[in-house]
Amino acid sequence: MISKFKERLENRHERCRELKKNGKKIMACFYGLVPKELIHAAGMVPIQLIEERNPEYDEKSKLLPYLCGLGRNLTGQIYEKVFDYVEGTMVGVVCDTNRHLLDIWVHNKVFPHNFLVRAPSRDTDAAVKYFAGEMKRLAGELEKISGNKVTEDGLRESISLFNENRNLFGQFYDQRPNTGISAEEAIYIFFSALVTPVEEHNDMMKRLLESLPTLQEDKKTRLMLCAINLNMAIDVIRMCEKYGASVVTDDFTHNSRYGSNNINENGDPYEALARGYLRQVPAPGIYSFEERATYIRDMMEKAGAKGMIYLIQLYCDAFAIEYAILKERFDAWNLTYLKMEAEDTPSSIEQLNVRVQSFVESLV
Amino acid sequence: MAEAEKPVISAELKTMMKKLSAGASYRRMMAAKEAGHPICVSSAGVPSEVLFAMDVYPIYPESLAAISAGIGKADEFFDEARDRDFSSTICSYTRCGLGISWTNKCAFGPIPEPDLFMTDVSLCCLHVTWWAYLEDHFKKPTYFMDMPATDNPDDPAYVDYYEEQIRGLVKFIEDNSNTVFDMERLKETVRNSDLTGHYWKKILELRKNKPSPASFRHMAGQILPLVTALGDKDPVDFYKAFVTHYENLIKAGVTPAEGGEKYRLIWNGIPIWHHLQIIDYFEKKGANFVWEPYTSLSWGNKTKSGRLDPENPFRTLAEKYTNVLSNKPIEKRYVHFDQAIKEYDIDGLVMFSNRSCRPMSIGQDEVVDMVRKNHDIPILIFEGDQADPEGFSWEDAKTRVDGFIEVLEARQR
Q: Of B138, B159, B182, which marks where a domain is finished?
C-alpha cells in the first residue's frame, strides 16, 4: 500500500501530464495557504510545487544566494519546464521570498496565469469580508481558465472532499506512532496528497487506514521531527534510524498547514473559506505561537517521543524566526530538542550526522 | 568652490536640526512618558499622523537599529539576539530591534516601558512575525495595520479595507489609553504631514539641478523626521528651511562631490548604515548620488496627486499608505528608474543587494536587466547588509568603487 503513495509522489509529473492529456487542467500552488478547494471547484486539479534535490535547479534559478533553497529550487525547476503541464500558479504568502518570487515569475512569464492570493493577516469580520471578496475574484479568474463555473454547491462539495482528506490524515496521525509505518513512509503518504487529485488520495487513505500494520515491539528511542524540506527530512530520518532512534511523529510545515483544520461546509462557502484559512493555518506570524508550540509538545507526548529535532533550511528566515520564538516555550517546558540549520545539499546534510548521533546517544 | 564661500547653514535651520535630531527625539520620548502619554513601539508605515493627533509617542525600532548601526553601537543588540538563537539570516533590523526591546535601552540610554505595539503589515512578512512576537512576549495590546500582499494596490476595495484599518487604529488607541480622538487634530496632523511631504519632494526636485546640492548622505541624515515625527509641525519648518538652504547652495554652485560633480548616480536600496562613509568615498571621487527609490518612493506624499487632503484624512492616508513600491510589478518599478535616469541625467547606477531586505532585493536583478537593455550606463552591485557589518569588507568595497569610477571616467573621456 505504501508503495502506491511513494509511486504517486515520485511519478507526480508523469501522472499530471497524463491527467492533462485526459482533459484535466492543473493549477500549481506555492505553499499551503492557497485555498485548493477553489481550484477544485473550478474543475481543475490543485498540486503543490515540491522541491526536488538537484543542485542544477538552484544554479539555474539565478536567484540571489541568500534566498532560501526552496525558492531557488522551485524557480530552477520552473525554468527547466519541469511543471510544463500547469496552467498557472497561485501564491499564498507565507514569507517575503515566496511572495516576491511571484514578481520574478510574472516578469519572466513562466506560466500563462499567475495569481497572488491577497490574504489579510487578521481574522476580524472586516478581514473575513475582504478575503471572501478575494475568493470570489479568484474564482472568477479560475473560471476563465477552466471554462467551468464555480457554483456555491460545487464549492461546498470541494470543501467537503478536502475536509475528508484532512480527517483521514487526522486519523492517520493519531494512529501512526503505534503502527509499523516508518517516518519516511509517512512522508510519502503526506507529500503524495499534495500532488494527487483529492478524490483519489481519499480512496488511498481509506485503504491505508483499513490495513495499518501493527507495531512490533520497538525499543528504539522515539523522536519527533519538525522540518520544512522533504529531502532533508528524509536524510535526517535515515540518520536517526542509523543511530538507533525512530522518528515516530512529525510536524512538517506543509502537513500541519494542510491538515490542521476543517472548513465549515454550511452557509456561504466563500466566507467559510475565508474563516477557514485566515489565522487557522500554521504559518509564522499569522498563527498563534502558543498553539503551535503546544501542538508540538502534545504530539511529542502522544507519540512518546523523548526528543525533538527542529530542522531549518538555511536562509529560510521565516522558519528560523519562528523557531527562535517557539524555543522560549520549548525551554520553559524543558523539552529536549536539537535545532539544526543546513542547506539541502549532500555536503551540508552530511555534517549533521555527528550532531544527530550525539543527540540520539544523549537520549539513550 | 572653497569651503569659506559655501553658504552657511542659517541659525534657524541649525535650531531645527537640533530640535529634530535623534537625540532630541529620544528626549522627547522620555518627556512624553513622564507626562503620562502612551508610548508605542511602532514600525515605519503606521500612519503616524494618527499617533500625533492622539498624543501617542512612537518608538521606531528600525530607526533605532539604523542609528545604532550608524554609530557602531549595535553589537550588543545583535549579541542578545544570537544568545536567544535568532539566526543571522534573519533581518538585522529585526534582530537589533528585538535586542533593543529585550534590553530596554537604545543608543541614547534606557527606553521607557512601552504601553502599546503596532505595526504595518505591508512592509514585509517579518514585520508581522516580529510584532506578533512582541505581543506574545511582552503581553501588551498590539495593533496590526493590516494590508494584504497585493499586486494591485490601486484596487478601491483594497484602499477601502486599509481605510477601515486606520479607523480601527483610532479605536484601538481609544480602547487602550485615555486618549480621545479629535477629528480637527487629525486634520491638522495630516496638514502638517502634507506640507512636510511637499517640502521633502521639493528637496528631491532640487537635486535635478546640475550640480546637485544634496547627496544621498544628506538625505539619509535628514530623513529621520519624516520617519519619526510626521504629523508634527516641526518637520514642516525643518524641511522648508532645508529647501531654502539647498536653493542657496544651488545659487552658489555648491555640490558635495569633491572637485565638482563629475558623475551623477542612483543608489538603490537602504543605506549601508554601518559604513555610510561609502557615500563619502564616492563623493571624494567626484560622484554624487542624486536619486534613490528609498528617499523618493518610500517616503513623502505618495498619493497620485502628490498631496494629502486634510479634509478627508482617513481616505487620503489610506491612499498614501497603500502605495507601496514592493507591491508593484517589476515593470512598474522599472518605470521609476527609467524616469529618474532621464530626468536626473544619470551616469551610473549602484544597486545594494541587501541580504536583510528580501522585498527590496528580490527583483533587483530584473530591474538591472531592464536598465541595461534601455540605458547605456554602468551598474555596480554591492552585496551586504543594512545594519549588520558582519562579512562587510571596507577595503573590498573601496576597490569596487575605484573600479566603477574608472569605468565612469573612461566613458567621459
A: B182
Our CA-based measurement puts residue A95 at a distance from the nearest CA of chain B, in whole angstroms, of 5
Q: Is B107 domain-assigned?
A: yes
CB contact under 8 A, B132 and A315: no
pLDDT tens figures, B345-401: 999 999 999 999 999 999 999 999 999 999 999 999 988 999 999 989 999 999 999
* Set of cell numbers at residue B285: 571621487
B284-313 residues touching A, CB cutoff 8 A: none
Closest-CA distance of chain B to residue A215, Å: 37
User: CA of B65, closest CA in chain A: separation in Å?
Assistant: 18
- Tally Cβ neighbours within 10 Å of residue A347: 8
**Could you give the percent of chain B with pLDDT greater than 70?**
99
Q: What predicted TM-score, i.e. pTM, was given to this entire model?
A: 0.94
Alpha carbons within 13 A on the beta-carbon side of A217:
0
Return mean pLDDT, chain A.
94
3-state secondary structure of B369: helix
Cβ(A90)–Cβ(A138) below 8 Å: yes
pLDDT at position A258 is: 65
Residues B218 and B146 occupy one common structural domain: no
Q: Are B207 and B124 members of one domain?
A: no
- Residue B4 pLDDT greater than 60, yes or no: no
Nearest alpha carbon to residue A305 among A351, A258, A338 = A338
**Per-window interface: B 144-183 vs A, CB < 8 A:** 144, 146, 148-151, 157-158, 161, 164-165, 168
Record: contact A325-B144, CB cut-off 8 A: no
Q: Kind of pairing, strands A25-30 and A86-92?
A: parallel
pLDDT at A257: 59
Asked whether residue B138 falls in the same domain as residue B45, the answer is: yes
Residues B167 and B205 in one domain: no
B96 and A CB contact within 8 Å:
no
Say how far apart CA B345 and CA B352 lie, in whole Å.
20
Residues of A in contact with B161 (CB under 8 A): 120, 126, 130
**Domain containing residue B361: CATH number:** 3.40.50.11900
| A chain contacts of residue B361, beta-carbon cutoff 8 Å | 64
- For B375, the domain range is 185-412
The C-alpha atoms of residue A125 and residue A275 are separated, in whole angstroms, by: 9
Question: For residue B4, is it within any domain?
Answer: no
For residues B364 and B351, what is the distance between their CA atoms, to the nearest angstrom? 8
Q: Which phi and psi (to 5°) does residue A148 adopt? A: -110, 135
Which residue do the cell numbers 541595461 mark? B372
Alpha-helical segments (H) within A84-229: 96-107, 125-146, 152-175, 183-193, 198-210
Q: In the Cβ-directed half-sphere of B292, how many Cα atoms lie within 13 Å? A: 25
One domain for residues B156 and B235: no
